[in-house]
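This part of the workshop introduces the protein records we will be handling. The structure tokens are whole numbers drawn from a learned vocabulary of backbone shapes. The record below serves as our worked example for the rest of this section.

===
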Amino acid sequence: MRLSALARLLLVAAPALAGASPALTWASPRRASVRAEPPAGAVALTSAPPQTVELWLPFTGIWGVVQGFDSDETHVGYAAYALDFVPAERITARTRARRRKLTDFPCFGQPILAPADGRVVWARDGAVDHEPYHQGRHDAGNFVILEHAPGELTELRHLQSGSVRVVVGDRVRRGQLVGRCGNSGDAHTPHLHVGFLGSVDPIATRPMKLSHYERLDAGGQWRPGDGVPRANEILRGLP
């Protein structure tokens, strides 16, 4: 979704995460199934059966939450339970002024991983990566939707054109590469949009809890995450 808050967000990068990280499974490039975007539902599913799947962060390294649940003009309604992420860094007005190409953004091209085992139920590639600060009508962009259990799905959006590595029907394992971060669809600057869905047709997000991660506290110490990342938090996955 559009990331209007990015320019005013300060994310302080921390030392690189030590230890093992989820292994990347590098699949051979294949053209993703091109299907029309699933329709949006009217509202998010505020009431849903208990979450049974453990969702890991869909990336490695240290990232920040630039948009949280039920916030701004995009994470509302059917998309109220969604999160936007970028790699953690210090953002200043000077930084923004220097960034004119997509490759100037550290998020662009970063590997995006399956947050849990599952099956690909929707995949789309071939949409262009818009230039930074693009303003336009909604378009689907490139995305992957994975079903982990009945009524428990994740969507990963704004993927880089040509990067989607899965097709509908594929079985994936947690930590498997599914695509790379891009600036396709309704994106202002490169970032990863993650939604936990209770319904895919129409799309409706539902409350989500993540696991196996730490957050950086105000004193610069890493603490266990409580499962609900919030705007401006800095996170890293656990091995």
